[in-house]
Amino acid sequence: MPELPEVETVKRTLKKLILNEKIKDIQVTWPKMIKFPDDVDEFKSLLIGQSFYDIQRRGKFLLFLLDEHTLVSHLRMEGRYGIFAQEDKPDKHTHVRFLFESGKELRYRDVRKFGTMHLFHKGQEELNLPLSQLGIEPFSEQFTVEKLNELLSKTNRKIKTALLDQTKIVGLGNIYVDEALFRAKLHPETRANQLTLDEVTRLHESIKKTLMEAVNMGGSSIKTYVNGQGEMGMFQQTLFVYGRQGKACKHCGEELVRSVVGGRGTHTCPKCQHPPVT
Known about the structure:
- The chain is of the alpha+beta class.
- It folds into two domains: 4-127, MutM-like, N-terminal (N-terminal domain of MutM-like DNA repair proteins, Alpha-Beta Barrel); 145-268, Orthogonal Bundle (Helicase, Ruva Protein, domain 3).
- It contains six helices and eleven strands.
- The chain has helices at 4-18, 40-47, 145-153, 159-164, 174-183, 197-216, and strands at 23-28, 34-36, 52-58, 61-66, 69-74, 80-85, 94-100, 104-109, 116-121, 257-261, 264-268.
């Protein structure tokens, strides 16, 4: 699933391609993707004639800002956007097409059909699901060491599980939690409320640094992810632990291991990340 760096990269690339484009028609071949309003004809009628003037990101969600509405899009596992000429034939996995007056179009392609779209009147998107229960942004001014310590001190869950909770901190998924914990020298099974202030400080720094480096490298193309221009991310080439089980740790040379924490595949160095004392 695309995480914060991948969604941020898609946002940045699409902003170069669709701003000020006016929608003349919309074609939807998989109506189940349109979650709100639940009437596809209403969804289309509200958007036709609207123009894109900005694209923002909230956690793992893309926010397309139009004249009167905000389109909230979640890519889920394999969703992707691309710009095409209208005469180009779409493939069978293209499920939503935004046709522009310019002759170009924005296409949403999703092999698994898990992606979702919600359309709200401008200003209502943060008051309703799926955005209303999201937590703090890691790049925001509010994401301080003190705030992270406050969030973690209130839960006895394992630190990996706590960091994956999108109602607390948004944008972190399996890849970047594993990488941030490794950089902070913290074992993913450590209880969140048992971290010292020094450990929380290291974790805070590693979260921000890991995410920023990933954004600057266009995200991680582990499976099918590409940005809005069809380009792969490059951060996967610098990963320390994720997906590297059986290989040597880049820091100490120890063999990296894979386990399951909170139902998620987890990658650690047994020497750099000491397991908690039970």
